[in-house]
Amino acid sequence: MRSAVVTGSSSGIGKAIAARLLDDGWRVAGLDLAPAGIEHECLTSTRVDLGDRTVRRPIIESIETTDALVHAAGIMRGAKLGALDHTAGDLLWRIHVDAAMALADWLAPRMPVGGRIVLIGSRAAKGVVGKSQYGAAKAALVALGRSWAKELITKGITVNVVAPAATETAMLSDPQRAILPPETPPIGRHIEPEEIAALVAFLLSPDADAITGQEIAICGGASL
């Protein structure tokens, strides 16, 4: 049975990814600050603050090996110039980027041939007014993904970034983003978490052996 580490597995995109992988026969280790949002015999869930280096380190290093890492944990904070919250910016970086580095640094050397890393990015990485700090963190994932893909390609491990547009999760109604209402993609609705999970499941499959170092948008036409 293949195994995957999925961060942010208690809700939203991460929960949808964990559920899809469980349905596909994976064993999933979920890492999240909140309690598990799924009950399944093949799911182990550990509560951890991924933004806290001291707390997360022993938990990450307790994972002996895995076939896949999906880093879906994240938060959104936004503000325009003149009102940037630098504490929030630091939190965005620690959860989105620093945690990804810690996870990959430990897990990638322990992955078998055919291993997979998928980072959940965002269309905001291309630049959105009022989301500069969030976009910067998501853009950093693209640089990490491409660099790691080059490094790991000879080991048969692929690394990709999935970049959704506004997705139908609880994050859309987070009071922290009230000043930055989400834009509806041209298809006339928000992206569904299960659509992102389906793409991630494909990227983790043997059919995606030749796809690595890519940022793949699932945006309902927002990038056109």
Task: Please describe the topology of this protein.
Layout lengths: L2 E5 L4 H12 L3 E6 L10 E5 L5 H8 L7 E4 L14 H22 L8 E5 L11 H21 L5 E7 L28 H11 L11 E4 L6
Parallel strand pairs: 1-2, 1-4, 2-3, 4-5, 5-6, 6-7
Helix pairs in contact: 1-5, 2-3, 3-4
Task: Specify the helix fraction band.
Answer: 25-40%
Name the shape in a single word: globular
Residue-averaged pLDDT: 92
Q: Report the biggest beta sheet as strand number plus sense, adding barrel if it closes.
A: 7 strands, parallel
Separation of the first and last Cα atoms:
39 Å
Global Rg: 16 Å
Beta content comes to 15-25%
The oligomeric state is single chain
Number of distinct beta strands: 7
Classification by helices and strands? alpha/beta
Could you list the spans in which at least 5 consecutive residues all have pLDDT below 50?
none
